[in-house]
Amino acid sequence: MIRHIVLFTWSDDATDEQKAAVPEALKTLPGLIPEIKSYTYGRDAGINQGNYDFAIVADFDSTDDYLVYRDHPEHQAIIAGHIKPIVASRAAVQLSL
Amino acid sequence: MIRHIVLFTWSDDATDEQKAAVPEALKTLPGLIPEIKSYTYGRDAGINQGNYDFAIVADFDSTDDYLVYRDHPEHQAIIAGHIKPIVASRAAVQLSL
């Protein structure tokens, strides 16, 4: 299994509407990309100081399935249209489990 | 459910032995902290450039259970003894799912 993990911080001038549009867009992806086996995402829960703002954890049966997701046009459209305009920093890991 | 996600980069002078000691230590924690419902961790799989080096994803039934883990002496001992000596950067999010 490949577990893809990505965390973002949003820029200071990102609006609440822009931040809310990210999960609204992401929720369409499991219906469009059957290679996604599990898809969890959301804003930080606010328990600790100094955290990143938003996280995605996505599970796939194989590296090839992860690559289908990574390069899928609908996913790339969300990155270009909703994430890149407001992202300040990004941290990612893929785990092979 | 609380999903705790943390990513690390290791310092350039971290040795392979120091890096390998981190998962070796972490694997003891599910046996010591029953509040951990799922615990996945490991080094980056090397699929993409620019990634962080290591990730942990830990699931808990509640915020209180996550806090037991966060503050547990055995967990804190691993942070102090194995992670802090070699960490260069850290990114974390807790998701409420």
CATH fold-level topology of chain A: Alpha-Beta Plaits
Separation, N- and C-terminal Cα atoms of chain A? 5 Å
Number of helices of chain A: 4
CATH-scheme architecture of chain A: 2-Layer Sandwich
Question: Would you write up a description of this structure?
Answer:
The structure is a homodimer of 97-residue chains. The first copy, chain A, has 97 residues and is α+β, with helices and mostly antiparallel strands. The first copy, chain A, has one domain (2-96): Alpha-Beta Plaits (2-Layer Sandwich), CATH 3.30.70.100. The first copy, chain A, contains 4 helices and 4 strands; from the N terminus they run E-H-H-E-E-H-H-E. The first copy, chain A, has helices spanning 16-26, 29-32, 63-71, 73-83, and strands at 2-10, 38-43, 54-60, 87-96. In chain A, strands 2-3-1-4 form a 4-stranded antiparallel sheet. The longest helix of chain A is centred in the N-terminal third of the chain and has 11 residues, at 16-26. The first copy, chain A, starts with a strand and ends with a strand. The model of chain A has no long low-confidence stretch (mean pLDDT 98). The A-B interface holds A 2-3, 5, 7, 40-42, 44-45, 47-48, 50-55, 57, 63, 66-67, 70, 89, 91-97 and B 2-3, 5, 7, 40-42, 44-45, 47-48, 50-55, 57, 63, 66-67, 70, 89, 91-97.
Give a summary of the structure in a few sentences.
With 97 residues, the first copy, chain A, is α+β, with helices and mostly antiparallel strands. Chain A contains 4 helices and 4 strands.
